[in-house]
Design brief:
Layout (H helix, E strand, L loop, with lengths): L1 H10 L26 H11 L6 H9 L6 H7 L10 E4 L14 E6 L2 E6 L8 H11 L9 H21 L10 H15 L5 H9 L17
Parallel strand pairs: 1-3
Antiparallel strand pairs: 2-3
């Protein structure tokens, strides 16, 4: 009788899943801080969904709360020169310009909208590292750039990464990830300069990608 019932269930197309099975959409990536449960992510989603379709971006932005990067978080949500939320997406930067292919991220303005494009190789980075990266890119809000602006942005990124590690130390566990490596390099320069921009500034000045930048730009007049 039991065998016959099993055959009838299969024939009718009914499939019974184990009670403990989870939909893939309910699984939170292992490198998210424990605070960011499925329930918590759903709670913060309405705050950040105007910026991106990616949950890792929601988590990264939320991690900027109560850090030096709070300014950047608010800028991304719309408190910027365009007065509109910044759109954030993972994108092949080489498709914009071949010279951008190896960049980690790119701040971009198109019309009256600001964008932050992140290299797809960082899709699996710890969200804390992406948070630090976003704190940098959110400072670029117009077509102008300068050595002073980049120095400020790199210093902001380093400071935020230090704060993220204090609050969410697991963010630095994957030290082989290229984005974590970038953040740790900035952290070392920041600490070496006694938490000033001394060595970060030197690194910016020596960066060949910045060799044609002016010394200052609007809002960043002090180098």
């Amino acid at each position: 009788m039991k065998k016959r019932l099993a055959v009838l269930l299969i024939a009718s197309g009914l499939v019974f899943m184990p009670a403990f099975a989870k939909d893939e959409d309910d699984v939170v990536p292992a490198n998210f801080p424990k605070k960011y449960t499925r329930e918590y992510i759903e709670q913060i989603k309405p705050i950040y969904k105007s910026t991106s379709k990616e949950e890792i971006i929601y988590v990264a932005l939320d991690m900027l709360k109560n850090t030096t990067g709070e300014f950047s978080r608010k800028a991304i949500l719309g408190n910027n020169l365009t007065e509109k939320p910044v759109k954030i997406e993972f994108r092949d930067l080489g498709s914009i310009n071949k010279s951008y292919a190896s960049f980690d991220a790119l701040g971009w303005k198109k019309g009256k909208r600001l964008y932050i494009f992140i290299n797809p190789r960082h899709k699996d980075a710890p969200p804390g590292a992406i948070a630090a990266l976003l704190s940098h890119e959110a400072l670029h809000q117009d077509e102008s750039n300068s050595l002073a602006e980049e120095t400020y942005a790199w210093t902001m990124e380093a400071a935020v990464w230090c704060e993220i590690l204090r609050e969410f130390p697991e963010s630095g566990d994957d030290n082989l990830h290229p984005l974590v490596d970038r953040e740790n390099t900035l952290k070392k320069l920041f600490e070496k300069g006694n938490y000033t921009n001394k060595y970060i500034k030197k690194t910016v000045m020596q960066n060949k990608g910045y060799e044609n930048l002016p010394s200052t730009s609007p809002g960043f007049e002090d180098l």
